[in-house]
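G., the chain you wanted modeled:
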Amino acid sequence: MDHVTHMINNKAWVGIAERQGEVHNPSTGEVTAMVDFATSNEIDLAVESASKAFSVWGTTSIAKRTEILFRYRELLNSRRHEVARRVSAEHGKVQNDALGEVSRGLEVVDFACGIGQLLKGEFSENVSTGVDSYSIRQPLGVVTGITPFNFPAMVPMWMFPVAIACGNTFILKPSEKDPSTSVFLAELLVEAGLPEGVFNVVHGDQVAVEALLDHPRIAAVSFVGSTAVARSIYERAAKAGKRVQALGGAKNHMVVMPDADMEVVADAAVNAGYGSAGERCMAISVIVAVGSAGELIIEKVRERVANLKVAPADDPDADMGPLITKEHRDRVAAYLDSGVDEGADLAIDGRQHKIHGDPGGYWLGPSLFDNVQPQMSLYRNEIFGPVLSMIRVTNLDEALELIGTNPYGNGAAIFTSDGSAARRFQAEVEAGMIGINLPIPVPVSYYSFGGWNQSLFGDLHIYGPDGVRFYTRAKAITARWTGITRNATLAFPTNS
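Predicted structure as tokens:
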């Protein structure tokens, strides 16, 4: 059995853990590792290491910082299959899905390698006679990221490459359910030449999270997870005077107009609804069928689901793997009964899907409900599993109203051949990320990822230009080197 511990000051922690947690193989249910849980003592050690490192790293040249990031990028790219195998082993997602996750994380490392262009300030000469004004952006100090189980490689890479490129030092608290990937990412940073203390990894549960949120030497917190936890983290960290970006839950809608290509729609619904067993914050969870679109969608989705192979992540032919834990699997499966009890039609029952794997694994096949109503728990809650719901509406007005009254606002998509409908949708829909004829509109690294409403707590989105703004502070400078006169006056200064 493996032992996963913290990485502090570029070294594996050598202390004795007061508490540990189990790490499971979701495909078999077996315990594969024990992970140490940090107390406030380990958090203090990590913060002390990061604080000491910041005194040097924060003033290290941009050229040196990017040199290390370029080396890291090449190491990560050459060993992406190792990262993906670690993701699959502890999360359960299939290999091509895990490789896709690593690739999207790499894009943010690419973006961070261009930090020299992104940190440039502004300069205005002679704003007043002999007076110049300019701005600079400076790092915050020690920052932390608290990341979820569903993307153990990608979501941390949404945060730390930009943060350390900007001159900050970073403490990562990954999910305790699949912690090994983060340690491997840290080891690659050490191999790339990152100085001691710039990047640290601490594992744990609520105890570790609260210690990070309350620590007076941590300047900023990035979080991705459920809405309830995101709100709590935002409130607690903001009260402690920290800068916060907390990304919460989602209920992503896919509006299908009657003029859409239904073959494309069915492919998109299956790919975006059941990929990674539905454990994606940008997964499509609600199909909004406008007019006559509904009947065609049901049959075409059923045809595709029948051919999906649900199997262990190391099966090269697997389309979908297990869910992350037994408890999560049982919670998701319970919606299949409650949905029927509330009056929805269970068109595809994932419990009847053939499973090619160990019966001890946390399996649930793709499921689809039809005639779901907005008051049902199926619709109101973020299920975070392979359960799609279809709601039928008569026109685009009703579809927009439905999405607008939903408390979440992460992403939304529309499938149509009508440009005017698509243009209206992108202008009026209440969501932060919009897809037109594609179902998962995760922005590329040089834009920023973030939702609206209860899908985001804080003012700035993650990675991209907003990431640079989040991990730096602007400073405006007004300077005069010529025409200095000795003229004592109490008058308010004006420009001349």
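The chain has 16 helices and 23 strands.

Shout if anything looks off.
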